[in-house]
Structures are given as C-alpha cells and as structure tokens.
Amino acid sequence: MPRKVNCGIDYDDGYDDDFDDYDYGYDVEENVKEPSLQDTIKRGVWRCSVCTYDNDDTMSSCDICGILRSPSVSNGTYDEKRTAPFKFDVPSPDDLVSNGLHSSAQHSKAKIFDFKSSRAPSSGVGKNEAVKVLSSAKSSDSSHDSTGKDKHGGIIFSKNLEINPSSGFKASDKSSASMAKGRVEDSDGRSVSNNLCSSGQSSSSLMPKERTDMVEDGSSLTHGGEGYLTSNLKNMTLGAKSGNSKDIKANSRAQYKPEKWMFPEKAEGSLTQLNLAIVGHVDSGKSTLSGRLLHLLGRISQKEMHKYEKESKLQGKGSFAYAWALDESAEERERGVTMTVAVTYLDSKRYHVVVLDSPGHKDFVPNMITGATPADAAILVIDASIGSFEAGMDGTKGQTREHAQLIRSFGVDQIIVAVNKMDAVEYSKDRFDLIKSQLGTFLRSCDFKDSSVTWIPLSAVENQNLVVAPSDVRLSWYHGPYLLDAIDSFQPSSRDFSKPLLMPICDVIKSSQGQVSACGKLEAGAVRSGSKVLVMPSADIATVRSLERDSQTCSIARAGDNVAINLHGIDGNHVIAGGVLCHPDFPVAFARHLELKVLVLDGATPILMGSQLEFYAHHAKEAARVARISLLLDSKTGKVTKKAPRCIVAKQSAVIELVLQESICIEMFSKCKALGRVFLRTLGRTVAVGVVTRIVEELV
Ligand code: GTP
Ligand code: MG
C-alpha cells in the first residue's frame, strides 16, 4: 500500500545493532598536510598535524583533538605505530570533557535553527489511492528498468544512489558526475559549461560559473542580532530581500513572472496537503500507529487487516500486524524493523496528509533524512514503557534526540509528541508528566516553542486517543485533543508558488516501455503537462508528458505537491535521484565546494580540519572532507569568536568549507531552504546540521 522512499543504501547483508560494517577508520593522510619543520618547531610549542593547534612542548598529545604528537617532532620518543598510514582518531566527547574542552553551556539553549515557515494554504488535492512502496533493500544501478506498477496498482521505484561502505556515498549512476562537457551561455549571458551528454537539446540557461548572489557578507556572519545560528539565517534571508544581494542572477530571479495558472484557486471542500513525518526511537510504535490510523480512517480495509493479522501471526510476529501495512518488504517484516520511509496517505477534516513513516533504527537514519526532509510537521513517537523512553533518550544509542534535532533542522517547527504504549504503564499520569518534563526540556533546547508542541498520551495497540477521545477510564485525567484532532490543528505551510520551479528528485520510475518519471515534492513553482523543465545535473531540457499525484493523473502540480512527473525528450539515465527539476531559465547550482554554517550537535564528536564526513542535502548524499574551518561563532550571539579555529566541538557553531567527493545539485539556503539544508554524519551518527551559505566553486 505505501510507497517507499528509497534512498538507495545498500544494506547488503544483515546488520546488527552496532552496525560496524562500515570502515570508519578514515585515513586522512592524503588530506592532512604533514607539518613542515617550521610549522612544527616553534619555540616551546609543537603543532598538531591534524587540527594544527599549537600545543605546549610538554604535551605528548594534542590538547584539542587528542592526537599523539607526531614522531618527527617528538622529543626523541619515537612512536613506531605512527609511521604506519595514519588512522583518524576522533576523541570522544568524554575525552574533551576531561580536557575541559567540552562546551560548558550544558544548560544553555543552544538553538539549532529558526527556519521560520510562515503558513498559508496550499492547493487542494484529491482523495487518492496510496502508492505502493519501492522496497528492495538492495541497491541497483539507476539505469535499470525495474519499475512500473506493482501488484497493488502502485508504483515501484528504482534506486539511484548507493553507499560505498569503505569510501562513503557515491552516486551509482555515474551520469550524475561525469557529464561536464561543452559550454553554453546562461540567461545572464555568462559562459557556463554544459554538463551534458544530453539528447542534443539545448537549454537557454544552464550552470553559472560563479554564484555571486551572496546575501551574506562578513557582517551577516558576525552580527547575529538576537544570536544563535538561527538569527544569522534570518539575517541572510532578510539581506536578500532588502536588496543587499549583488548578484545579477538574483535580479533575474526577482524578474521572474509567474503565470496565473501557477497559483491555486482554493476549490471549496478541497483539502490542503500536509507532509507529516512520523519519527522516533526504534520500536516506539511509529508503524503500528500509522497502520492503526490508516485502518481507523478506512485506508486499510478489514479484509486487508485480516490478511496482515494472519500473516504476521504465522511468522510469529502477531504484534506487528498494523506495522505490516507500512513495513512491506520481507526483510522489514522478518526483522520487525522499518528500513526505509514509507509514504502513504490519509485524510483528516482539514488536510490531505502525506504520512512519512520513518525508520527508527540508528542504522537507517540516513533513510530517515532523505525520506522525511519534505515534512511540514511531525509526530515524534515515544515509547512510554519503563526503560524504553530512557533508552530512546540515551545520548549515544537513543534516536529520540537525534530525530528531534533532525526534524527541527528540516525546518519543522510544529510537532505532536505521541506518548505511545501508555497501556504498558497503566495510563499513568505520573509517567506521562515525567516524559513531558524531561523531553520538553530537550525540545526547548532544539528551539521548539512550547506553544508548537502538543503532548498526547495514547496507545496505538489499544486504540486509545487516536481518532476519538479515549474510552479507557485510566486516561480520564487527560483533557487535551486526540491525535487526529491535533493533526488538524497544525498550521498549513506556506508554499513558494511565485518562484521558479524547483523539485528535488527523490525517486525515478522507469517503465518497461522506456518512459521515465521523476518523483518528489515541488519546493517552488508549478508545472503542467507540456511544460519544459530543466533536468539537473544533466542539464537536459525535457517536456512534461503527464503528472500523477497519489496514483491519479492530474494536470497541474504546484509547490507543496508530491508528484510523479512523466518526462519525454530525455534519456532516462539522465534523470537521477538527488537531481533537481528546475525552470529552464533558473538552473540549480551543481557544485562540490561549499561554504556552510553548521551547528555541532550536543554529544557529537568534534569536527576537525580534514575530517571525512557523510554529507546529506535534500535527496543527495556524498562523501565530504572539511577543507577549512573559517570562523567559530558564538552560539548565543552569532558573533565571530575566533578565526580559523582548529576544531569545532559539540554545541559550537561555525562557518566551514566542505569539499565533496562528487558535485551535487545544491542551492544556498537563502535561495531555497529545502535545497540549502545540510546534515553531516560520521560513525553512524549525525554530528552537525547546517545550511549552505555560499557556493564556493561551481562546476564549470
Ligand atoms: P521501527 O520503525 O523499526 O523504528 O519501529 P516502529 O517505531 O515502527 O515500531 P513498530 O510499529 O514496528 O512496533 C514495535 C513494537 O511495539 C510492536 O511489537 C508493536 O506491537 C509494539 N507496539 C506499538 N504500539 C504499541 C502500543 O500502543 N502498546 C504496546 N503495548 N505495544 C505497542
Ligand atoms: Mg516502523
């Protein structure tokens, strides 16, 4: 029934809880310049070869990053092990604490972001059948034709990206990275390279050589107003709006004139679309809750439900009957674990809700990131059982905090905390209050406003407080809204109807007849049958043949809509997940050298010069290296506290430069929030969230 958003990770064989299959022993020898003698032998100090900190001569290891002193400058104490290729040793936060370097602002509200999203109704959408999941856990080349309608009449998607366990992420479809060829002129008359091995069609504007539409100069970095990284972001956006931007490109964007059909006419009775991410720690009951809601609202028939119950019982997984509606793959069912985001639909009074049921297991956080980024709002599911809430909150193994931080950095500022499995704690008010108090403090530190968080005690299994008020007397102490009511209380998201088309491609469907469709959520603009679109990064111009929303043909799709866009006039291999459909005159950037403003998450390992990280932005992933840490910012005021620091530790924010292994479609946050948000991960955890502040060098 649901469609699975497939981020293409090749979970080849069984995983275990520790998932140590990846080789995280990054060899940074290539990336880190060995210190010259002059560098290293300053009087009384030695310079760390990794973070370049000048340590006191008496120190045998770096005071900042804990790396042992290089043998070439040690006081005769030659460390034989260090002559071997250098393995990157990241000190644990505990090490830093013991060095007195851990952020002392334990209780400070290190706000992550303030991606304010004003809210306005979007176009209504019809009632549609849910689309079937794409769920093969095996990665495959995007050129394969594995798609078409599945047995449920839905659509199965192909995968386009894979993780190379040893070297990080890589586009498996080499076309994404190897297309730079001829030169053309962009709409502003600049010479740009045509990134194309295309069908021979030309675009009037392709990739500008240099992005000068910086809305951010030193001042926007240094004067944060009310502080926090967030306020800098606000300033950036304001800077652009107030005409501080020097870019001709920005002017030409301002000159963009949307046509009348691009704006929705709110038809009476039509529902506004709401992309709702269901997130939370593993086994908290996300899929069970989603399945139960679908069943209660008639999206899963009684007959289907019987089938799930029977089959799950047969496999000794009776308690997963509702989750089976979402966890469709044999592997997910066998393990009782969601692996990829399942997309399904339900209608509330006010919304056509696109449900994004995310995996909670820590190994599948990358899938959660790529699948749930289009969320407008979220339900954070908590397992109220004794010990389970605590496990979810655990800083190293729990996913509750990481999911909350990620959701906030996706721009989601309104959430429901569904305190599930209340049946397991006798619907205890004390337990609910304890969870609310502990988690509430953390959510505030993530910049969720109390007024934007709704707390609901419920039980998915016992159907308490989901679509009607609870019937169990043990919940008589609760007087708030039930879950469906709370969903209807979300504010609708604003949509960028008046901007040029931008649709990050999350999946590609290829039919056996050679037709190709790009799937994703329109972040800006609109398209209709017959529209010309620029497909990046191939820079091919294609024509929209038809559009599908929730498996139903539609004639127009506008910002906020999740659609499959059937294209013609393009080689199917040039349409890849992680790519972007844009207006032909307003191409998205394609780059690998970026400047970011990042916040290192609480408890995360430090980021050093030369650190190898996994980089995520919209549906794109790439291996990346920290090329420069330019500025350290005060996380409260946003002011520059240090230039060229050696490393950034937990709760610090900074401006850094990152070089990706391959170029990706990307945009500055000030231009497109959805394409300018980034996530940095390493060692199986998200270490930082941030935004793109500058495209340092675009592919030419
Ligand atoms: P992942 O997607 O793998 O992170 O798991 P999940 O959060 O989707 O959890 P899932 O729905 O698969 O449920 C995990 C287990 O919790 C199953 O055995 C469910 O029956 C059980 N469960 C879910 N909701 C409830 C509830 O309200 N009460 C009780 N007692 N158990 C529940
Ligand atoms: Mg699940």
Which ligands, by name, code or SMILES, are bound?
Answer: guanosine-5'-triphosphate, magnesium ion
CATH architecture label of the domain at 272-489: 3-Layer(aba) Sandwich
Indicate the low-confidence ranges by residue numbers. 7-42, 70-251
Radius of gyration: 25 Å
Q: Helical segment tally?
A: 14
In whole angstroms, the N-to-C terminal distance is 43 Å
- Under CATH at level 1, the class of the domain at 272-489 stands as Alpha Beta
Mean pLDDT value:
72
The outline comes out as globular
- Supply the helix-strand structural class: alpha+beta
Task: Report the strand count.
Answer: 35
In percent terms, what proportion of residues is strand?
25-35%
**Main beta-sheet strand count, sense and barrel state:** 8 strands, mixed
What is the percent of helical residues? 10-25%
CATH superfamily of the domain at 272-489: P-loop containing nucleotide triphosphate hydrolases
CATH topology description of the domain at 272-489 = Rossmann fold
